[in-house]
Amino acid sequence: MHEGLIVAVAGMPGSGKSTVAAMIAEILGARVLVMGDYVRREVARRGLPVEAHSIESVATELRERMGKGAIARLMLDDVRRELREKGMVIVDGVRSPEELDVFSQVAPLCLVAVHSPPLVRFKRMQERGRRGESSWEVFMLRDKVNLGFGLGEVIALADYMVVNAGGLDELWRQVVRVVEEISVGRGKSCSRGRGQAHGGL
């Protein structure tokens, strides 16, 4: 296994996982790779509208064709580059145990889950104003699709849980505590930091 550490961040849509990933990256001086960006690029490459329905449809098709670890595999070159250059990378948006397995074959991995109540998540999604994300129906669709990918199991496997139900100051304090724990052992406190994974590639 290569040197370095991958810190993966998972959470339901609107939970604030990207905010948490950015905070971790700021503290550690690492880069964030957003899994959804790789799907959005594929949506755009196909000439489809970059909105919730197209994104979820393409993500589902990629996983059906390439396996549930498909998006992680698309990212591996970038992940390896960041590990070579900085020794660490933050991955925002893991949604299946199979994606964890893919990353765990590259470097030790710590998994941070972000929890936020559904109504709070829905309000955040409305406020960020992405195309096609304003309705409760779309919100429920995204939850259903993500849970179908295995996100619930990923969250249950988390090494650390951050609860994002208050303000940014409280969230920052939680993230600092988590990063301090991760940094002490460079991931050895995490299940996949000890080389444990679901299975092989």
Secondary-structure class: alpha/beta
Please list the strands of the largest sheet in the order they lie side by side.
2-3-1-4-5
How do the SSEs run, as a string of H and E?
EHEHHHEHEHHHEH
Number of domains: 1
Helix content: 55-70%
Give the key terms.
globular, 201 residues, disordered C terminus
In brief:
Helix content is 56%, strand content 13%.
Describe the structure.
This protein has nine helices and five strands, in the order βαβαααβαβαααβα. Helix content is about 55%, strand content about 15%. By secondary structure, the protein is of the alpha/beta class. The chain has one domain (about 5-190): Rossmann fold, CATH 3.40.50.300.
Q: What is this structure's SSE topology?
A:
Layout: E1 5-11, H1 17-28, E2 32-34, H2 35-45, H3 52-66, H4 70-86, E3 88-92, H5 97-104, E4 109-115, H6 118-128, H7 136-149, H8 151-156, E5 160-163, H9 168-185
Parallel strand pairs: 1-3, 1-4, 2-3, 4-5
Helix pairs in contact: 1-9, 2-3, 2-4, 3-7, 4-5
